[in-house]
Structure formats: structure tokens, C-alpha cells
Amino acid sequence: MSDSNPSAASATQRHSPDIQQLVGLLGNLMPLLLRLQSQTFEQPFRTAPGNFAMPNPVLEHQAAENMIGDMIAESLRSLSAYLEANAAQHAGLENCVSIVTQAANKFTERDFAQAFNLIYFAYRAIEAARAADPRLPLLASIDRTQSSIH
């Protein structure tokens, strides 16, 4: 099978180890999300002599939850903007709209693990649609300021 876009193939080969490492890291993120959601809370602050804050599981949990929430919110904005710009013109993206809607609902419910999982499914569905229709733009090429999710 010949590649219709040799520059894209060479770019994929160049970034393959980075992408594989990122996929591995994201795979490790799911157990972390599940663990964070199941942890119990302790006292909010502990201080050492001299008023230096010591590591605290509650603070660690809150920081991780806020970081994950921000990451998910940004992904939802990106996906939303992409689908708003492209779903009407490309039938292959229709099922992505419902996946992103489900992810947004899970995000609202603070079920970050499920929201993250659904976002990953949406990214996979977009890549499948792009494989079937190379005219579809890259997800990263959308102006995120136009999204309706804020």
C-alpha cells in the first residue's frame, strides 16, 4: 500500500517514540484518577516547625483533582470547537458529538475517570474518521476560542 502523504508518514515516524511514551503515561493516568476519586479526606493543613507546609494527602488530592479537571476541561473545549467546525460537513464525525456530550456530562458530575475515558474514545473516533477521510483537519488546527464549552 502506498502512502498518499509521505511527509505525514515521516512526521509520524519521527514522533512515534514520543507518542508511545505519552500514550504510556496517559494509560497510567487512569488508575491515578480512579485512586484519587476513591481517597478519603484528612485534615486540610499540617505544618512543621517554622510554619513550613508539609505534604498533606488532602492538599495533594485537591491539587491533582484540580489539575485533572483543568486538563479535561481544555480537552472538552478543543473537541467541542473541532466538532462545531467540522461535524456538519463530515458524516464520520457524527458519533463523536454524542461521545463528547457524554464526557461533558461526566465532567459535570466530577466523574473525571469516565470523562477522561470518553475523551480518549472521541480522539480515537476522530482519528478513525480522519483515516477514512484525509480532508478532515487535524484536531490541533482548530481555534479553541470559538468553543461553546467554557
Average pLDDT, all residues: 77
Percent of residues in β-strands: under 5%
- Record the strand order, biggest sheet: 1-2
> Structural class from helices and strands?
mainly alpha
Q: Roughly how many Å apart are the termini?
A: 43 Å
Name the helicity range: 55-70%
Envelope shape = elongated
**Major β-sheet profile:** 2 strands, antiparallel
Show unreliable segments: 1-15, 41-45, 146-150
> How many helical elements?
4
Please tally the β strands and state the result.
2
- What is the gyration radius calculated from CA atoms? 19 Å
N-to-C SSE string, H for helix and E for strand = HEEHHH
Can you summarize this structure?
The protein is mostly helical. It contains 4 helices and 2 strands. Strands 1-2 form a two-stranded antiparallel sheet.
Description:
It contains four helices and two strands, in the order H-E-E-H-H-H. It has helices at residues 6-38, 57-86, 94-108, 112-132; strands spanning 47-48, 52-53. By secondary structure, the protein is mostly helical. Mean pLDDT is 77; it is low at 1-15, 41-45 and 146-150. The protein has a two-stranded antiparallel ribbon with strand order 1-2. The protein is 66% helix and 3% strand.
Relevant terms:
150 residues; mainly alpha; two-stranded antiparallel sheet; disordered N terminus; disordered C terminus
